[in-house]
Amino acid sequence: MKIGPTYIEYYSIRNAVNKVAAEATSADPGTIRQAMDRQMKVDYAYSYKPEFVRVIRDGDQLNLVLNYEIRKPLIYNLDFVAKFQHSAPISQR
Q1: DSSP 8-state symbol, 79
Q2: CB-based burial of residue 31 (10 Å sphere; 0-12 exposed, 13-18 middle, 19+ buried)?
């Protein structure tokens, strides 16, 4: 039961990355970071930090890359670690 909310939160952040990448009008990392911040105000995720998302060039394609790790207590002295990665192509209009 404690792991479920972590995955729900990941899908919220992932959807925000997809939306921002699809609607990007500029490949400027600052502009994209602001768009992610605005989107995360709508699709609030408690664990989200701006450093989870980066713009990475792969040849001619720019990608918005989500990469982060969450560590949370599970029971007593046992924690769980979840690593999440996702990439969305930035549409260059």
Answers
A1: E
A2: middle
